[in-house]
């Protein structure tokens, strides 16, 4: 998490311990024997020490030499207890409060449980208190505010509950407070706006509600605010967007509403990260954001933003991640081209550009090919884009994901796509693409997902498709394809094949290669004729097989009884004849089976899944009979009437 990253940087200084007297009076009435006793008590409340950290914590040696103990040189008093990431399990002894000279207490990344008691408040010299990554519970002790020298409190990743004590806002030197990933409730105390030294404020992943207090937003030195995953509401205080100290703003996954400030109201010259996604923000995206020239991450997804994508984003020279999906963004008025793509070509570090689920209705400019070479993800899915895919798209050599699904694009699928050798996922479904699938697609040796369903593609699936050695999903349903090459079955990694609702003709090669991994095959609503290959019984991972609404003839192969993982089988509306093989009784996972509207005859098997079928599964055949539960007529030796069940 981002807060973690920042404090690791900001705390390097804390290790350079300045030894000075914080409590002269305590020094008089306590001694190094008090420290020794406190440490022994600390040790005795540890239940598990698998790394033997405490093996040299013995009376025989001076405690200043013990593992994890730092002492002041002259007075030989404990100033630091550094036992982070030592696999310790136990409670934190209240005796720790007797280490009167302690400045640095780091017990992070262990398995401390139980409560942190008020005695912690005796540590008047404490500057750094780091207890992250434990299982501490209960309230944050109020006594903590007596530690007036505290600069850093990191408690994230525990089970602290209750409210945030407003008393902590009296800590005059506090620069970092990280309370994320706990179970805190209530509101953010406005008095935190009094801690003028505060730089990092982290409360992510708690149950905080209410507004962000204006007072907090006005803190002059605030660099990072992380409130992700809470229940905060209301407008964001404008002051948070007019602050040259700000480096990172993480206010995503709350329910903030209202508009962002525009023009001079947004002044964030040092901002690197802005996460405002999954809120309820409205209005335009301010173009003054383009003045935040250090931005690397800009995520505004899933809000109610309207208007165009702002201009001048090309000034964001360091932008790497730019996500705007799930808003209501529209084109620049009077412009048919998505001209912001031209601006973005100056963002030479761009890695992800996601614009899906908006109301963009323009064309993709040819300059899309000038986007950064580092671009890996490009999505415009679920918009209203028109026109064709510019052939220049082939210049995006590092793209792994390209999604243009669910738009109104037309023309051919450009053969230049074959130049994007790194492409792993291609989503072109739900457009008006026509023509044939370019054979250059076979050059995409890293392709895993090929989605081009619901278009007007015609012709054959190129037989070179077998070259795509990692292809897992082919969805080409609802097109006008006419031919399946046998080589398609050579794809050893294919899990899902959906070619339903096409114009596929011809028959299936009886010698197709059986796949070990193919799970779902849908060839329904085509004109495939000939028999169902017996080899189908060797597709050992098949869970769903739909061959309905074709012209298959001949018998149902009895090998299908081997498809024991099958839960869906639809053979209806074909010309299949002969008996339903008794071997199908072995299909114990079947949830749905349909044999209706064929020319089947003879006795219906009556064991296993057949016990649960209704007559609907057998309607309109030649002469099926036999299953008493189905109320099918018993098989008379001379029965030849078509059974209309
Ligand atoms: C306390 O400090 C004195 C003087 O430095 C030293 O002799 C004594 O051993 C110390 N006691 C402990 C418990 O370390
Ligand atoms: C105790 O153990 C620590 C860590 O293993 C080591 O640095 C230190 O020198 C040891 N102290 C003594 C007195 O042996
Ligand atoms: C505390 O210890 C952990 C684990 O060694 C370390 O990652 C962290 O930076 C330390 N925290 C402080 C504030 O020194
Ligand atoms: C804890 O120590 C282990 C190895 O001892 C190390 O791999 C891990 O990164 C450390 N974790 C932290 C948070 O310092
Ligand atoms: C140290 O702390 C414990 C528990 O908080 C307390 O009972 C004890 O009196 C304190 N003083 C000394 C000198 O150990
Ligand atoms: C900030 O501190 C001043 C002086 O102590 C106090 O009057 C004021 O109420 C505090 N502000 C908040 C928001 O608590
Ligand atoms: C936010 O509030 C809702 C309803 O009050 C609750 O179901 C949800 O768990 C809360 N979310 C968080 C992150 O606290
Ligand atoms: C932004 O902050 C500056 C300096 O703090 C202030 O002068 C200016 O009025 C603020 N602008 C707005 C629009 O609030
Ligand atoms: C960027 O900042 C300059 C100087 O403060 C200002 O004139 C300009 O309007 C800002 N640009 C945008 C797009 O807000
Ligand atoms: C890209 O940057 C160059 C040089 O900084 C500048 O001349 C050009 O206008 C910019 N283009 C866009 C589209 O922002
Ligand atoms: C393209 O991807 C390769 C491999 O992931 C990487 O080494 C290279 O740096 C990337 N090119 C750019 C311009 O980012
Ligand atoms: C029939 O259906 C019931 C309830 O859905 C199920 O528990 C049972 O296993 C099924 N029997 C067979 C043989 O599939």
Describe the biggest sheet? 23 strands, mixed
CATH class assignment of the domain at 257-363: Alpha Beta
| Shape label | globular
CATH topology term of the domain at 257-363: Leucine-rich repeat, LRR (right-handed beta-alpha superhelix)
End-to-end C-alpha gap: 63 Å
> Are there runs of 5+ residues with pLDDT below 50, and where?
3-21, 635-645
Task: State mean pLDDT (0 to 100 scale).
Answer: 91
Q: Gyration radius, to the nearest Å?
A: 34 Å
The helix tally amounts to: 5
CATH architecture of the domain at 257-363: Alpha-Beta Horseshoe
Query: What ligands are attached or bound here?
Result: 2-acetamido-2-deoxy-beta-D-glucopyranose
Helix content: under 10%
The amount of beta strand, in percent, is 15-25%
Structural class: mainly beta
CATH superfamily of the domain at 257-363: Ribonuclease Inhibitor
The tally of beta strands, per DSSP, is 44
Structure notes:
With 645 residues, the protein is mostly beta strands. It has a domain at 257-363: Leucine-rich repeat, LRR (right-handed beta-alpha superhelix). Helix content is 6%, strand content 23%. The protein is built from five helices and 44 strands. The chain has a 23-stranded mixed sheet, covered by helices on one side. A hairpin with a 6-residue loop joins strand 2 and strand 3 (78-82). The longest helix has 13 residues, at 32-44. The chain is globular and about 100 Å long. The protein binds 2-acetamido-2-deoxy-beta-D-glucopyranose (NAG) (12 copies). One 2-acetamido-2-deoxy-beta-D-glucopyranose binds at residues 32-33, 36, 62-63, 76.
């Amino acid at each position: 998490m981002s807060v973690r990253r920042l404090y690791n940087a900001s705390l390097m200084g804390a290790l350079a311990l300045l030894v000075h007297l914080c409590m002269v009076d305590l020094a008089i009435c306590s001694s190094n024997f008090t420290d020794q006793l406190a440490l022994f008590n600390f040790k005795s409340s540890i239940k598990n020490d698998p790394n033997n950290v405490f093996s040299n914590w013995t009376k025989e040696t001076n405690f200043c030499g013990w593992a994890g103990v730092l002492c002041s040189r002259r007075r030989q008093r404990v100033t630091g207890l550094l036992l982070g990431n030592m696999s310790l399990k136990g409670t934190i002894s209240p005796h720790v409060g007797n280490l009167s000279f302690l400045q640095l207490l780091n017990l992070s990344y262990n398995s401390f449980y139980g409560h942190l008691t008020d005695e912690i408040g005796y540590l008047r010299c404490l500057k750094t208190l780091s207890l992250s990554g434990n299982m501490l519970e209960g309230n944050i002790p109020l006594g903590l505010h007596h530690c007036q020298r505290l600069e850093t409190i990191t408690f994230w990743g525990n089970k602290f509950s209750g409210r945030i004590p407003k008393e902590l806002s009296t800590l005059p030197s506090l620069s970092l407070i990280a309370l994320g990933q706990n179970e805190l409730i209530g509101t953010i105390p406005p008095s935190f706006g009094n801690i003028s030294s505060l730089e990092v404020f982290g409360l992510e992943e708690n149950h905080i509600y209410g507004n962000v207090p204006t007072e907090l937003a006005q803190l002059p030195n605030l660099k990072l605010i992380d409130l992700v995953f809470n229940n905060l509401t209301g407008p964001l205080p404008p002051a948070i967007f007019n602050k040259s100290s700000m480096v990172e703003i993480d206010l995503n996954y709350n329910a903030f509403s209202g508009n962002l400030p525009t023009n001079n109201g947004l002044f964030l010259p040092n901002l690197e990260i802005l996460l405002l996604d999954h809120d309820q923000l409205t209005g335009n995206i301010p173009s003054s954001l383009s003045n935040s020239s250090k931005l690397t991450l800009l995520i505004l997804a899933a809000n109610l933003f309207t208007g165009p994508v702002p201009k001048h984003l090309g000034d964001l020279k360091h932008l790497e991640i730019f996500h705007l999906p799930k808003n209501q963004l529209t084109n620049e008025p009077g412009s048919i081209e998505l001209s912001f793509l031209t601006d973005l070509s100056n963002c030479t570090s761009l890695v992800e550009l996601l614009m899906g689920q908006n109301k963009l209705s323009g064309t993709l400019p040819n300059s899309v090919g000038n986007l950064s070479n580092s671009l890996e993800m490009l999505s415009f899915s679920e918009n209203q884009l028109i026109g064709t895919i510019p052939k220049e798209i082939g210049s995006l050599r590092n793209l792994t994901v390209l999604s243009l699904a669910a738009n109104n694009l037309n023309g051919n699928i450009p053969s230049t796509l074959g130049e994007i050798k790194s492409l792993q996922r291609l989503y072109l479904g739900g457009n008006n693409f026509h023509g044939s699938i370019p054979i250059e697609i076979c050059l995409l040796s890293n392709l895993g997902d090929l989605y081009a369903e619901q278009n007007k593609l015609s012709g054959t699936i190129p037989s070179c498709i077998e070259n795509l050695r990692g292809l897992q999903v082919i969805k080409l349903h609802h097109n006008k394809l006419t031919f399946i090459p046998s080589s398609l079955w050579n794809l050893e990694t294919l899990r899902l094949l959906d070619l339903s609702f096409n114009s596929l003709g011809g028959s299936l090669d009886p010698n197709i290669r059986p796949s070990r991994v193919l799970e779902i095959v849908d060839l329904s609503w085509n004109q495939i004729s000939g028999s169902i290959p017996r080899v189908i019984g060797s597709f050992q991972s098949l869970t769903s097989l739909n061959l309905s609404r074709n012209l298959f003839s001949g018998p149902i192969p009895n090998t299908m009884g081997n498809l024991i993982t099958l839960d869906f089988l639809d053979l209806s509306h074909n010309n299949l004849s002969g008996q339903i093989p008794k071997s199908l009784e072995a299909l114990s996972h079947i949830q749905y089976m349909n044999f209706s509207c064929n020319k089947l005859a003879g006795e219906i098997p009556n064991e296993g899944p057949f016990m649960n079928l209704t007559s609907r599964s057998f309607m309109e055949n030649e002469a099926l009979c036999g299953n008493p539960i189905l109320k099918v007529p018993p098989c008379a030796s001379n029965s030849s009437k078509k059974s209309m069940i």
